[in-house]
Amino acid sequence: MDALGEIEIKVEGRVGARTLSPELVDIDEIREVLEQAGDLLFPGVRRAQRPLISYEIAEGSVRHRFRTLMQTVIGFGAVLAQVEAGGGIDFLHERSAAAVEKLQRLAVEKDYVVTLSANGSRLRIDRTTRYERDEKLWVDAKFYLYGELVDAGGKSSPNIHLDTKEFGVLRIATEKEFLKNADANLLYRSFGLRAAGRQNLRTFEMDRNSLTFIELLDHNPEYSESYLDGLLRKAAPAWEAIPDAEAWLEEIRGAAHA
Fold first, then answer.
1. 20 in a domain, yes or no?
2. Which pLDDT tens digit goes with each residue over 8-59?
3. Rg of the Cα atoms in the chain
4. Torsions phi, psi for 76 (to 5 deg)
5. Which residue from 7, 57, 178, 240 has the highest number of Cβ atoms inside 10 Å of its Cβ?
6. Is 191:149 a contact under the CB 8 Å cutoff?
7. Cα–Cα distance for residue pair 127/40, rounded to 1 Å
């Protein structure tokens, strides 16, 4: 049996005149912490692909305890140590960074002290800390995404859910009129989709929470050699003046993509 370890998110504070305890925590707040824990430990990993995470809530203010593979606990402890030492979260996966930001907002809004602990490392988050991503590293970008449309709708915030191989299920904000005027049922069909969002200049990661719909594209996932040859023939004249196309591409992409 694989060795297990424990990760804890401890929340300290007050509700009115009373010290925070499990019976004073609303279920929505518990759900929020559980969601952040999943993104902190396994960002970008689907439920079917990650190991089991068991959970219990305990006294001592409010202690959210998670048990999972010791290897994950050790790795998460190293991440906490690096965040605490550097004071920043820009190096984290975008979902992990967003989870830390949400815990930071919780600490500020409710005057809580949130302490993350794993493998001897601790990270304290309170109203005086500023664990937020550097906005200078994020730029507006366009993305081409491919997958199966598995959900659509929403009363006040219409959106579509695209199930992709690379990113899992993406929630993409859209206009109500697009869903209302669709010519056919969109659900459970494969599409290409163009979306606007934010991208990190350092890591090239996409901010999943920023995605907004631009247009839907018909997408045929079957490989067509004749179609590819046609595209290459059309593009060939534009490359004639470039002596070394591969070297030019590497220069354009930069070292991170070379």
1. yes
2. 999 999 999 999 999 999 999 999 899 899 889 998 787 778 899 999 999 9
3. 23
4. -70, -35
5. 7
6. yes
7. 20
Distance separating alpha carbons of residues 164 and 256, to the nearest angstrom: 23
Q: Which of 24, 186, 182, 50 is nearest to 112 (CA)?
A: 24
What is the number of structural domains in the chain? 2
CATH number at residue 172: 2.40.50.140
Residue finishing a domain among 133, 153, 174: 133
Residues 129 and 27 in one domain: yes
Give how far Cα 62 sits from Cα of 22, 23, 39, 254, Å: 5, 9, 20, 47
Phi, psi of 139 (to 5 degrees): -125, 160
In one-letter notation, the amino acid at residue 238 is: A
Q: Tokens 């949400």: give the residue.
A: 102
Phi and psi at residue 228, to the nearest 5°: -65, -40
> What is the per-residue pLDDT across 52-78, written as a single tens digit (0 to 9) for each?
999 999 999 999 999 999 999 999 999
State the residue range of the domain holding 158.
137-218
CA 16 to chain CA mean position, Å: 34
Alpha carbon of residue 208 to chain centroid = 5
User: 90 with 191, same domain?
Assistant: no
The burial class, CB within 10 Å (0-12 / 13-18 / 19+), for 188 is: exposed
Predicted pLDDT at 107? 95
